[in-house]
């Protein structure tokens, strides 16, 4: 029997999914044939590719040109995780509030930690407005497969590596200064939250 023809677009969608799950599996697939190699090197695939294999510890990779090239390519293709890492470091390590713009770009592109952090900072009074922050938090609620606990835990691990101000922000989840409440904007009583009075004074 003749083999069924699979359109290039279908393979491209497979590549995009593979990229979001595992960079290693994507690169293995890219070696199978010239078509896969071409599809794997498109900007959209690099925009989607998972960076989980290389945690956010830039000093670890200085001696590895292959990893450096990988990280540079992710940034060149505006990978949301890459944008968020850069903005996160500038904001927390350098104290540059303008880095919130980068976080917002990553959040708008679908980065869950970025959306959650932008919302949290905004509700704490850091950002354009609390209404704007609430929009990012509500956007998380609109996703079908959101793992809110996993998102909070991942953000907490990331924040634990920076200064005490970051620990203060994430510790608000654990000392009762942030409580979850009903949100009329998204009609949900689980993901969105309100801040108790006097939050910024209790460090």
Features:
single chain; At2g35280_TPR_dom; 2 domains; F-box-like_dom_sf; two-stranded antiparallel ribbon; mainly alpha
Task: Please provide a written account of the structure.
57% of the residues lie in helices and 3% in strands. The chain is mainly α and 203 residues long. The chain folds into 2 domains: 7-42; 80-201, no CATH class. A two-stranded antiparallel sheet has the order 1-2. Helix 6 runs antiparallel to helix 7, helix 7 packs across helix 8 and helix 8 packs antiparallel against helix 9 (130-141). The longest helix has 15 residues, at 80-94. The protein starts with 7 loop residues before the first helix and ends in an 8-residue tail after the last strand. This is At2g35280-like TPR domain-containing protein.
Overall pLDDT metric: 75
Count of DSSP E strands? Answer: 2
SS summary, helix count: 11
Rough outline: globular
Distance between the termini: 71 Å
Sheet with the most strands: spatial strand order: 1-2
Order of helices and strands: HHHHHHHHHHHEE
Sheet/helix structural class: mainly alpha
Helix content: 55-70%
Total discrete domains: 2
Radius of gyration: 19 Å
- Report the biggest beta sheet as strand number plus sense, adding barrel if it closes: 2 strands, antiparallel
Uncertain residue ranges: 175-182, 188-203
What fraction of residues sit in β-strands?
under 5%
């Amino acid at each position: 029997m003749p083999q069924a023809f699979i359109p290039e677009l279908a393979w491209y969608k497979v590549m995009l999914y593979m990229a979001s799950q595992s960079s290693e599996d994507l690169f293995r697939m890219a070696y199978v044939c010239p078509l896969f190699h071409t599809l794997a090197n498109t900007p959209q695939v690099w925009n989607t590719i998972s960076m989980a294999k290389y945690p956010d510890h830039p000093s670890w990779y200085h001696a590895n040109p292959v990893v450096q090239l990988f990280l540079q390519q992710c940034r060149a293709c505006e990978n949301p995780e890459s944008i968020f890492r850069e903005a996160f470091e500038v904001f927390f390590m350098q104290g540059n509030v303008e880095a919130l713009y980068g976080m917002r770009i990553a959040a708008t592109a679908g980065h869950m930690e970025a959306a959650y952090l932008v919302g949290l900072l905004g509700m704490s009074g850091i950002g354009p407005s609390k209404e704007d922050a609430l929009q990012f938090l509500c956007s998380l609620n609109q996703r079908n497969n959101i793992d809110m606990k996993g998102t909070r835990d991942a953000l907490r691990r990331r924040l634990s590596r920076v200064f005490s101000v970051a620990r203060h922000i994430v510790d608000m989840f654990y000392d009762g200064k942030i409580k979850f409440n009903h949100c009329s904007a998204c009609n949900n009583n689980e993901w969105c939250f309100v801040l108790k009075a006097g939050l910024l004074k209790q460090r």
